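Worked problem 6 (solution included).
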Amino acid sequence: MNYYNYFTEIEEHFVRRRGKHLLISPMDWALIAAWRDAGVPLQVALRGIDIAMDGFLARKSPGSARVSSLCYCHDSVMTEYGTHLESRVGEPSPDARQDAQNNDEPGKTEVLAFLSARVSEIKELPAKHYFGGATIEDLDRIAGRLEEILENLKAGSRFNSEALERDLQILDNLLIAELRSCVSHEQMAEWEKEAKTELKIYRKQLPRDTYDKIRNNYLCKRVRQKFEIGELSLFQL
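Solution. The predicted structure is:
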C-alpha cells in the first residue's frame, strides 16, 4: 500500500459512508497523516470509520446534519488500533510505519527515481524563491546528503527501507524547518488561524498530542504547497 493510496482509500471510504460527495478538507488529510505516522494499518482505519459511522447513523434523526469531518471517527479508529495491537501481543511486529504500508516495499529503481526528483526540486528552490545565503547553504547541504544516499544506493545491490525512511524523515524535518523560517510571520499567523478554526470543535475531543500532530501536519502541508515541494518519504511512492 503506497502513500497516496493510503490517503485516497480512507478519503473515498469516508466520503461513501458520509453520503455526501465532497472531498475531505486539508485538516482531514492532516489527521490521516497522523494515523499513518502512528502506524495505523489501512484496514484498521477503515474498520474504525465504519464503527463510528454505524453508531452515528443508528442515533441519527431525520433531517439531522451529516458528519462534517473525519475527526469524528478518530476515537473509533484509535480504539480499533488498540485492539489490533493487543491481538498481536507476542508476535514479531514490523516497524509501525511499515505496518501501515502493509509491507509492500518500493523497488530500488522507484526509490532512485524518487530521490533524484526530490534532489532536483530542492536545487531548483533558490531559482523560484528569494532566500538568504544561509538558507541556500542549508538547502545545498540537504540536497548533498540526499545525493550521498543516492550514490550509496546505486553502489549497493540491496537497501534497508526502514533505515532509509528514518534518514529521509530527518532530512524532511530539516527541510521543512528551513523553509518554514522563510515564511512571513503574517502568513504563518494566517495558517495558524486556519488550523485553529478547522480544529476548534474537535479540540476537546482529541488528545493533546493528536491535536498538536494534526495541526503541525497541516502547517507542513501549507509550507510544501507554498514552495511546491514534495515530502521526503517512501510513502510517496
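Discussion: Residues 92-103 have pLDDT under 50 and may be disordered.
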